[in-house]
Amino acid sequence: MEAQRLRDVSTSLIRRMFEIVEKAKREGKDIISLTIGEPDFSTPVEVVEKAIRAMKSGYTHYTSNLGLEELRAAIAERYGVSKENVMITTGGSEALFNASLAFIEENSKVIIPSPTFLSYFTYAKICKARILEIKTHDNEFVPNVDKLSEMMGKDVSVIFLNYPNNPTGAVIDERSARAIAEIAMDYEAIVISDEIYDRIYYDKRPTTLADYENVVVINGFSKSLAMTGWRIGYVVAREDLINSMLKVHQVNGVCAPAFAQKAVAEVLLNGEFEKIVSRMVAEFRKRRDYVYGELRKLYWTVKPEGAFYMFLKVEENCLNFAEKLIDYGVAVTPGIAFGSGNEEFIRISYANSMENLKKAVERIKAYHESKTS
Ligand code: PLP
After folding, report:
1. Are the C-beta atoms of residues 121 and 339 closer than 8 Å to each other?
2. Residue 219 and residue 208: Cα distance in Å, rounded?
3. pLDDT interval class at 10 (50, 70, 90)
4. What are the pocket residues of ligand 1 if the criterion is a CB atom closer than 6 Å to any ligand atom?
5. Which residue's CA is minimally distant from atom 8 of ligand 1?
6. Tens digits of residue pLDDT in 132-158
């Protein structure tokens, strides 16, 4: 029998969309998928070569639970903290799960902005917390600080933040982000600040909240180095908070792949990291400008300032829209995958070639015209 803690956790939406797309492909339809949650680029050769070298020289065993010293030190330097404040995890997801188990008290309240990355809802449910959603649709997809302040109480254990945001691309301004960290501090709540898209931004530079005592920063290299399959994430936090998360990590991720840690440490230390990221972001910027420029003519949205997503109000039930768009040859993610209030929204990911994006935009226009004519 499935344990009760999983009662409200569902995989049906993702499965349903996957099945719809697979069925269409089996029927020979040409589908362009704008559902992808990872860069479409291959992992840079600089990283691959270093990993092969590391494997050949024996980086194929456990590392310390906390991670390779050299990688922790390289990350710590970027944040101006000590390596004791950094723990390497098997991807950002493991870091999020560790932080959730470490800091979400059973029956406490957890504040989650909507729309946002669905996993936070799952973590809160597994931890048997009560979820308070703060809708951000009328505030450019970032939480209104006054509204959040009104929701606070001593029974709030955790606030999740994710900027640049999945699925909207919104970047919170520094003042609001800091105000939220401070409000949380007044109530002794932890902010889990998922900054995994921090390197993928366009004009508005994202802020890190790593300098707050009550903030656990989640990050990793899945997105910034296009290496989702390698599973390298990390947390930056106060040392005693790291120790709490270590209690989970030691039995959960245990350690991230040694050769992958070594390769990332080397590209961080020799400066290649910055070059790789700029290359990728320059490409994403072109796509963002194109897709935003075209689709904003059809649907309401907020200009994405980071990540590689855009959230569109399609004025139609999102499941219907997504299913019907398959007939036009485009797959998108229905908004209900990102919290409540998103029933008429869809997410598109522009982590796809310009050629495919152009075709997809034409197909979306054709569907839009079929509805309005
Ligand atoms: N956080 C956000 C907001 C994400 O969108 C994702 C992946 O899509 C993750 C975390 C997980 O990343 P990782 O592959 O490092 O587990």
Report:
1. yes
2. 10
3. confident
4. 37, 91-93, 117, 162, 166, 194, 196, 220, 222, 228, 233
5. 37
6. 999 999 999 999 999 999 999 999 999
